[in-house]
Fold these 2 entries.
Entry 1:
Amino acid sequence: MGKKQTDAKNTDHINAQPRLHQRAREIQPYGTVNHALPLELEEPVRLEMTEQLNQLLADTMTLRDLYKKSHWQVAGPTFYQLHLLFDKHYDEQVELVDSVAERIQLLGGVSLAMAADVAETTQIERPLAVAKKFRSSCHDYSMRTNLSLAKFESWRAGHPPLGMTVRMTSLSARCCAEMSFRCGF
């Protein structure tokens, strides 16, 4: 009986309200690499790789969001097929985003995650906040994907293999080829 009384006293002091305005200490600043990882790559190489991968990540996240935008805004007689196509490409971009972000973490870096940081970093031009015709959207996405991949591939040519690059390139190339085929260019 004494235990129940003790438990009742403790529940009087429990507060289910969230604790607001808390600040945690920074674990690792952005733009640095963790030294505690047993990697054969020197710090300057890992720094440059994470910087380039974060650029690719920002561009890939932007493309992912553009595909979802088109998925929501597609209209017309081929609505259903295009709706599914854009959703498929969105899902493939999600896989790429995850792979790139995980690779950055494996290199000891900090990956971009917040939309504001992505918008600040991406080299892909921000689209107008209007619905566009399908053919125009396809062409834009295809060109943006190819440009982003070309920049990354030209940088990667002189650096150690990243392992995931072949998978990313083939997946993005397949997306571009399918978009080009459906758009007729």
Entry 2:
Amino acid sequence: MSAAPPPPPAPPASPVTWQVCASCGSEISETDPRLPCPRCRGLLELRHRPPAQGGNALRATFDARWGVRRGVLASGVWRYGEAVLPTAGEHILSYPEGNTPLLASGAVGRWVGAPELLLKHEGQNPTGSFKDRGMTVGVTQARRVGARAVACASTGNTAAALAAYAALAGLPALVLVPKGQVALGKLAQALAFGARTLLVRGNFDDCLELADQASERLGVYLLNSVNPFRLEGQKTIVLELLQQLGWEPPDWIVVPAGNLGNTAAFGKALVEARAWGLIDRVPRLAAVQAEGAAPFAQSFRGGFAQRCRVEPHTVATAIKIGNPASYERAVRAIRDSKGVVTTVSDDEILEAKAVVDGAGIGCEPASAAAPAGARRLIQEGVIRLRDRVVAVLTGHVLKDPETVTRYHQELEPRPARANRPIEIEARLAEVERVMGG
């Protein structure tokens, strides 16, 4: 009697996390290091199987981790591991990052016209910007796929974060920045943390194209926001502010918009949070661009019928981008949240920055686009006076010291909020004269 044939092999278990092309729908493994989509060169994004428990149980899991002081769960990113990268395991690399404050300021709220305004200050991350949230996940993934080196194009903050996390991981780092267009504080960080820094004679978009070519030719792992793992970390800005609000979502989340990684990440976070029962409604997103670097706003005004590109010009170097890489994903985020895109002038950005700085909070110029944009939307009646608004400050005040000193010491005509230093002789009478007004 012949032996029974062996049973057919069991079908592979469905993955917890995988990558999907936003353009053609192709699916690839989460550990496939190729960027962009190998079939159509579209942007990839991560999909996660819904956690086994959602709603109250998932909120309770996240809440129970709040306040952990040591280990991976001390991170304001990895606290939400089920929503970020559930399979990261022992590869996780963390400072920790996140755990940034949600601040109320009467002075800023009055200026904006929203007395209950809250400021989510991402400048309190380890290298001084929100980029650390994305970089902890991006470099973790680089370790998972065995990357030999990591690279990015940057207007400054990405370079600083990449350099720091690569140094922690012991990986060589390559950063490409536009020559003469990066704030001193950010360039200093990239150099101090040991990244090989290339000053490119061009703008950010030129740097990104060159970084993409270099990653393919040299086999380095690209960690710009085209990398979907970066956006998974940046989602936690939204998850953390929702948790800080007791999982009661605000009416609006206002965010500066440059390369549109945050806009895309915020939209993804909100859709997933609603689908998994963490929140019962989706807040509206407001993406704010500088008037001189506003391709996304131009597209929005035309109903996103056409993707616009511009030659960018703005004092807010972190959002000085004319061809944002995450455009398609950000369009979906605005549509999914019934959001809006607006613009503010450089003068409005600098005034908003002076208000935030003068309130003792401080931020870099690009961050100030958020409160400036909220103010404009309130004046236009888009945001109602009774709406609950959270504006995201993306970077620390010391990221761009030149702009601070130029505003307060050099700009003419003198801005109303300029705080001019006063030179005196070394005599008490001089101090008394100045203090007496």
